[in-house]
Amino acid sequence: MRALCCIAVCLFGAAASDPSKLLEGLKAFSLGDGLGGKTLGEEGGKKEKNFCGDGVVDLATEECDEGKANGLPWPESFCTSECMYVPEVVCPALLINSTEALEEAQRCRTAEDVEFQLNTAIDVVMPNLTIVLPGGVIGSREDPTNLPNLAKSISMPNLIFAQDEIDFDEESPELETLEFASLMYTDDIELQDMPNLRTFSAPKLVSTDGDVQILRDPQLVTIDMDGARIIEDQFELEDLDKLQVLKLSHLEHVGRVDIERCPLLHTVEMPSLYSVGVAINLVSLPTLKSFRAPLLTLSGRLVFPDDTRWDFSELGTNPLTVFEFCRLPAVEIRFLEEREELCSDGTKCTVEGPLSPACKEALKEGKAEKEEKKTDDLFDLSGLDVGKMPLGGKFDLGLKEGLGGLRFGLGGETGKKGGDKGEKPDGGKCSFPVPVLEKKAAVCGNGILETGEECDGDGTVCDNETCKFRTEVVCEFDSFSLNSTADLQELENCAVIIGDVQLGIAAPTDLELPVLQVIYGAIESFVVTPLKRLILPGVWKSPGPLLSGPGLNSFPDLEAVELPCVLQSFGWEIFGSPNFNIFELPKLQVARTLVIEDSCDAAKPFDLVFPDLRIREEVRLENCPGVRKLVDPSLVFQENPLRVVNCANIELLFQPKMSLLFDSIVDLQDNPKLRLLDRSSQVFAQSTPPVRITASNNSPGGLEMRYCSLYVEQVDELRENGCQANADPPCFVLSGGSRECAAKEEKQPAGSEGFGLFGDTFKFELPKF
């Protein structure tokens, strides 16, 4: 059933408490100002600027808008008077296997799937198709009975969302050009074994939830994905014989990069890249002259005890490949330069670090300064107005020490006297070894950590003549058994750990490593341990799993995890820890998983607050009575499920900036106090169909789900299948047409732009059929 979208569902009883009140508690974190909408029952605010009939589409409330033509009979208009598509243009799965089938498909504005098996070598243009879900656009032999696709080119200039994939392979032997001028979101892009493909273009792509794999396309010359912000999993190029330049100007995060056997590739430009989840692997690129990622700060598993680490081999020799990494910490620049699998003491490649003439010149010329300004807020969303979320503008939590975006650690607060290794580096005292623009040259031995220095001042870990870590504090091993206090003392002077630490049955109850800065490896256990507290006060990166193991109850006594300085973490899986009640990672920016099951103490309630977290893969909270709130004010991308089940005291799930993805299953069940989920900025959701968002048996007064920017058709699916107002207890979807979303827009205070509040709508004009 295609329900009318613009009727707000807000039917709480008169005695029901207002879920917006839950946001008031966030003021303790300087997060609450201006967040509350009008209480239920108050009058709605001013009329929105855009409205049905103005000729411009707002996806949160409309599927289409032909202005005065709305409501005319098909085919004079494809849009009803309520700005919904007429049934004639809403299509099932399309099989385009002839010119007649292609002509018939031109009426379609949406389709469940699009598959090409054209029997004629023609150029295909489908200007009217805008959304494909739950399927994708394919020209591949997913079914061995499929016939080849003989299309020479395919263009879909107004397609903005193809949920499942863009997938073409050897079954499209004549295909030369693939163009998706407006595509914003898709799961995977797979272009493989096409002998004639020359150009792939998706210049407005925002993100992929899965992989980008472009393999064995010998004629491919152009890859235009310049708008891509996030590639969550693998970006893989392989056997592209004619590709010479790869430029991803806006890419800020990628899971891993694998580029192999591209014999003419000489330039790779990723000027906005900030974080890598796992690794960059470059193999057999004999003409590669430069790989430029001047803003790369979080390198994932640069070095690691297994084959998930970075690897360079068979790169350019005359001249040697040059890597430009102007923001990596000094210790990682050293690893890049020296380690055999990387540049191998300069015999395989060279590295331009923050003190290099290349980086200094770039800053001097203003090039890097411009790039830094663009990404000062890590995900500065200027120019990407989606849904009802004002994605332009800065995000400022109002917290001191620059917690917003990249500002912390980059403006001088890194300078900390290094003599007191026991001082807990919280409250802005974290010694992040991230390069900054400095007017004066670094002075080794002054006790202040400055650009180009690994350390300064603490003679137990630092060579104060070179400001490099002493050899003995870079601890490398395959596996270290931690099973006594004496074992712990061996690790206490480690500033860097490369290898796995395995906890035994006699491990200390408190695992605190005061001088450790980065651990490339896991902290794991295969037995039940007495660990109560994990405290790593100076660690700024932990790209391996911490507190992991095959058993589900290795840490039954765990009470606290404290990493006050960590920026990047692989993730956390805490099982069977009934006393767990402290989880402090206030500066975390990029993470993989957060799983807490059969843990927590209802008598010691706590909140999960991540002020600066931008990217996470998964949240799973099950049977955890101690958690009251999950607060992710900066999160823009969460790939995998948000699953909260049987958490007796959880009240609020707050993720208002989730705009750079579409795929995230939501499963909320048996949480008797849960009253509010805020995902105000999410534009599309995973749809099977129906949309994969479910809620049942939560607060008796009702659960309010704020999806103020969600595509209107998916809002209808959600109300019919996942969040129903007539359920017991009820569930209410507040969408773009609701008074609460409109009130939130009106109440936006000056200086709070971009914080799950609303401004410009995502508007676009579609060609008429």
From TrEMBL:
Residues 1-16 form the signal peptide. Keywords: Signal. The keyword Signal applies. This is LNR domain-containing protein. It comes from Chromera velia CCMP2878.
